[in-house]
User: Fold this.
Amino acid sequence: MIVLGIETSCDETSAAIVKDGKLLSNVTAFQLFHSKYGGVVPELASRAHEKQIVPVVAESIERAGISKDKIDGIAAVHGPGLIGSILVGLCFGKSMAFGLNIPFIGVNHMEAHIFSNMIEGPKPAFPFINLTVSGGHTQLVLVEDFFKHTLLGETIDDAAGEAFDKVAKMLGIPYPGGPIVDKMAKKGNPESIRFPRPYLDEGSLDFSFSGLKTSVLYFLRKEGFEKTKPDEQFVCDVCASFQAAVVDVLVHKLVVAAKKFNVRDVAVAGGVSANSELRERLEIESKKNNLRLFIPRFEFCTDNGAMVAMAGYEKLKRGIVSGLDLTADPSLKLS
Ligand code: KG4
Ligand code: ZN
Assistant:
């Protein structure tokens, strides 16, 4: 069974081919031009998807070494994300499925992220806890089976990646700042500034990063920081101290969730899972707590077609398909 997966929920145009549960190709076109605007511009993102969707899908088919008449089903994300961006991949996927007279499978983007740890081995065993940390989302999910999951907690304001990018902006670091904050933090002292750890109520598995971001802002104001004349060591210390606060909270809540639901496997997905300090701390804490940790390759940490193709393949195998009237839902929940 061959499934084409399409991802266009934000600013990556990505397509992948999965055959009998094995990934044959994954092609992603990035939209780097957003950095000059300090963030993703929705209108420009959807226009870029329109330009890229045909060559990206064609290349994914070519690299997989198949022809399009061999495809048994087409999966595309129908939410959550930017409506214009989602519509490009969704309409393209539905039209292609209609043209080839094969099933169309709508995939929830957050559900697809959970599948990013099932693209290649070793894979987590059910039940496991999944932490998705990206620019748009921070979620803890109990995954009991392929399509049986419970949302345990999520951010009540900013996503972790969003907080990284906003703090980076305050420091004069270009968008997306997360990877640069990570790099600069390596040269800084994480104990130089004690930023608050937003744990919320005792036992809560929700997150909140907006207060932490504001305390960085107040600290920079108090220190009279000027973006135009940055002291490199000062910036590195702020990056390291801010990153330590975010990582402390993410790691703590993941371990608490694993203990609470008595699971042994924990998985992490989303762009922020590329963060080196988060990876290091997760390794240490999972060993300490006797947990098995799964983090995908960087290619599958960020938005990608492979996770959509894999989710689509598992759905099609179970006969779960969608009508061609399925529409985009920018705030689609994880059900
Ligand atoms: O999953 P993703 O590619 O896109 C979505 O938001 O769906 O995640 C992008 C986010 C951005 O906020 C980016 O700054 C952050 O992931 N990110 C990082 C790192 N690499 C990417 N944040 C911290 N450290 C990193 N190394
Ligand atoms: Zn994502």
